[in-house]
Amino acid sequence: MDRKIAVLIAIGYTVALTIASLITLKGVPELGTSIDDKLYHVIAYILLIVLWYNTLKNPIGSKKLIRLTLGCIAFGIIIEAIQGKVNINRVGDILDIAANMVGIFLGLLYSIYGRKMLS
Fold it and tell me: pLDDT tens, 71-91?
């Protein structure tokens, strides 16, 4: 994929994730578990890190990888911290931050190792 297109997709997804994280969501499909919300966080942050990883030149160095990871973690923490201040129907949750981090690390594992195994 062309790098410019990958960057546009990653930026678009980040903006969409920011908006979805700060508005009141209605009609979100249920997955049938008691942890649906956390699963959505994991999935959202897997996609976030995979999309941004794809914008970087492959293979990427460890410094870029660390900055990318810390940037995604910081993004998730900031979103959780401002949720209640922006929308009275939303509240930041430490377990959401944990779910975000699980998603980031699963996305990293896929990006680094899964692609090699699928090739």
Answer: 999 999 999 999 989 888 888
The H-or-E segment that residue 17 falls in is helix 3-22
Closest among 16, 22, 44, 26 to 90, alpha carbons compared: 22
Span between the terminal Cα atoms of the chain, in Å: 16
| Integer Cα distance of 37 and 19 in angstroms | 16
The 8-class DSSP code of residue 89 comes to T
Domain residue ranges in the chain: 3-118
State how far the alpha carbon of 89 is from the alpha carbons of 42, 47, 85, 101, in Å: 21, 25, 10, 23
Q: Residue 102: exposed, middle, or buried by beta-carbon count in 10 A (0-12, 13-18, 19+)?
A: middle
pTM for this model (two decimals): 0.90
Cα–Cα dist 24/58, whole Å:
37
